[in-house]
What does this fold into?
Amino acid sequence: MCEIAENLKQIKEKIHFYENKYARILGSTQLIAVTKNRSPEEIILAFEAGQKDFAENYLQEFLAKRDSLLKLNANWHYIGRIQSNKTREIAENFLWAHSVDREKIAQRLNEQRPSNLPKLNVCIEVNISQDPQKSGVGEREVLELAKYISGCENLRFRGLMTILHESQDFSEQLHSFKKMAILLKDLKRQGFPLDTLSMGMSGDFEAAIAAGATQVRIGQAIFGARK
Ligand SMILES: *Cc1c(COP(=O)(O)O)cnc(C)c1O
It folds into this structure.
């Protein structure tokens, strides 16, 4: 078995192990393979090993690889910072946008989503650890953006996404991820029909699963360390 296939198998086993350990429903955490800086060949190997959901951070990089990947029937997630001049191509090429952090971006994605495609699945990115280096809205801004996105007819508001600071230890990770779970619960209580907590990367997905992540976004643990 190639290394990527072997890594994928191990990650899936770990996800199941953590689902068990933290009393989560088995199979309730979806694995998204993050392919920034990875070649089409590496992505194809992962696809052939059964991986269907992939995520990219940089639109230019995705577009450069796209032709080699068209033959794969993969689901593409956009997880990078969204600049307003990139919204059209995101709306045209992706099934999900995880990193919506302002009204203007939601408005443009809504207007530019092609009518022959299903609604674009959208998450609000939350800067839960209030890290000045990270994008995302503050906790208090979530509700207003949630209301706006819910009114966009070509968007399907699915939930919340976050990226943690790398240096946090397990208990800090857990604390931040639990705050995300509470935010999602509050929104659901207010009537938003949400089902997604996109959180957890190679270095912190155990804590994310413990706190209720429904999607983990993993790159290095599948494809090897980024150069
Ligand atoms: C790079 C990245 C990931 C994956 O990080 P790894 O450390 O490679 O697992 C997940 N989410 C976002 C938003 C990223 O930029």
The mean pLDDT is 96.
